[in-house]
Amino acid sequence: MGEVTGAAGATDAEVRDGAARDGEAVSRFVERFAADMTEAGMQRMASRVFAALLADDDATMTSAELASELRISPAAVSGAIGYLTQVGMVGREREPGSRRDRYRLHHEIWYTTFAGRDRVMTRWEQTLREGARSLGEDTPAGLRLAETAEFFEFVQSEIVTMMERWNARQEARRRSEGPEAWAVVPAADR
Question: Looking at residue 97, what is its pLDDT?
């Protein structure tokens, strides 16, 4: 995201398909969605970086671009990227012929995130079942742990079914719109 100006004096990062983007509107979206994610438990800076990448047409930015866009320090970007990489929401790639890294949202980020939660819930369910046996399945605590384990088992089966329906829906959409509608074209090539 350089500082080359385009339509209506907007930077190239704000110009998409020949039209200028409202930078303030994008910023408001980023901050609002980041606040929603923070309220749900994600770290604040990680939420802001994730939302900025989500709002970028390419879903990719450098550390300097993120720092400039969000008006935060490179150290804050680094910490947020570290967290997002650790939880599998963002990947790091090297620009060809450069020493700069670009950070990119993973393809189908929400699908991947929910699919990853399945492993976590499996582990929780197993631990809860062991806990129920250890505490005694007929004690109030043991019953509570067993019921919680049943809940996770139920949620997992529903997630699997939901993901299958999502895949079928996406495949039908791809067939109806054609492959060119699903091609990801970098903003620089538009």
Answer: 84
